[in-house]
Amino acid sequence: MNILEIKQLHMSFGDNQVLNGLDMAVPEHSVFGFVGKNGAGKTTTMKIVLGLLRADSGSVKVNGEKVVYGAAKTNRHIGFLPDVPEFYGYMRPMEYLRLCGEITGLSPDRIKSRSEELLTLVGLKEANRKISGFSRGMKQRLGIAQALLNEPKLLICDEPTSALDPIGRKEILDILSTIKGKTTVVFSTHILSDVERICDRVAVLHNGRLALSGTLSEIQEQYRHNSFSIKFANSDEAAQFAGSEELKRPTIKLTQDADVLTVVVEDRRVGGQFLIDLLSKKQITPDKFEAVEPTLESLFTEVVR
Ligand code: ADP
To answer: 231-277, pLDDT tens digit by residue?
Structure first.
């Protein structure tokens, strides 16, 4: 089942058409990377999902229920982590979560057990001091604990790692991948390596709609170029192989970089077999022979050009 379903969403600010028929579906129990350049419309989409902005047209469903602008009952299914979460600096984490729990209407016992569980999850169990002294990463982790207090089915995070150093980013990514069994996570980002690290699915927003979407392997399959990378013992051997008569065909393209040869063929299976046969005929055992998988970075650059 899809926990979030967006259909034909249109949204403009004056003349600036930000969303132009956006369709997007997020299946349950996934970590979903919502990717796009700055200004692509990721935050706008999230605000519409949270019922904080009224779209010009289109529909959004959370857990099968329609989102209504200004009266989003659907928010009971959602935990939200803004890019810069705000706290009362004079409070300690436990006090802050108690306040949030009381506002949400949880029982005192439930607040206590849930807060302890969540502070352990986000690594702040021992950080019993004022939030004002917290690092940016600690505040972000506390923000996740707060967003998860009410056991939401969907956790939406707006650029959760953008302002953090590599260690802080890793901590957040580890937490997000831990919770996916219980909560579906949608996070927006422009850091593609974060998506590659933890996301099952990815969607790239460009020109107001999705330019790419699917699992990483589906997308790689779709955009796979028929390229092979062959690493030889040295650059002379690579050059010799590259000069083979058998490779002088219009359907084969070669690029040499020192001892590595990249070969683009027309058909991945036939071409791959042909290269293996040729290496074998010439009695060359390469150090490495591999099909080149496109990276998310290279795909992103290709579709968002
Ligand atoms: P992203 O989150 O992908 O960086 P945003 O959704 O924040 O993108 O912004 C998308 C576009 O919409 C930008 O051009 C931004 O300037 C514009 N925009 C966002 N919010 C408003 C607003 N309240 N009023 C006018 N323009 C806005």
So the answer is: 999 999 999 999 999 999 988 989 899 999 999 888 888 999 999 99
Cα 32 to ligand 1 centroid, rounded to whole Å: 21
Q: What is the pLDDT of residue 259?
A: 96
Q: Is residue 149 part of a domain?
A: yes
User: Is residue 305, in this structure, part of any structural domain at all?
Assistant: no
Strand order in the sheet with 2-13: 16-27, 2-13, 57-62, 65-66
Measure the CA–CA gap between 194 and 46, rounded to whole angstroms: 19
Q: What is the domain count for the chain?
A: 2
DSSP letters spanning 245-298: GGG-STT-EEEEETTEEEEE-SSHHHHHHHHHHHHHHTT---SEEEEPPPPHHH
Is residue 298 assigned to a domain?
no
Instruction: Give this prediction's pTM.
Output: 0.83
User: Does 304 reside within a domain?
Assistant: no
Instruction: Examine the domain organization and report whether 31 and 146 are in the same domain.
Output: yes
Residue 128 banded pLDDT, cuts 50, 70, 90: confident
Q: How many A from CA of 297 to the centre of ligand 1?
A: 23
For 84-108, write each residue's pLDDT tens digit. Answer: 888 999 999 999 999 999 988 889 9
Instruction: State whether residue 302 is helix, strand or coil.
Output: helix
275 shares a domain with 177: no
Please indicate, yes or no, whether residues 100 and 198 belong to a single structural domain of this protein. Answer: yes
Ligand 1 pocket, residue 18 CB under 6 Å: yes
For the stretch 181-228, pLDDT in tens is 889 999 999 888 899 999 999 999 999 999 999 998 888 777 777 889
Q: Are residues 270 and 177 in the same domain?
A: no
Ligand 1 pocket, residue 88 CB under 6 Å: no
- CB of 44 within 6 A of ligand 1: the answer is yes
- Ligand 1 centroid to Cα of residue 44, in Å, is 6
List the domain range (segments joined by +) for residue 159.
2-221
67: which DSSP letter?
P
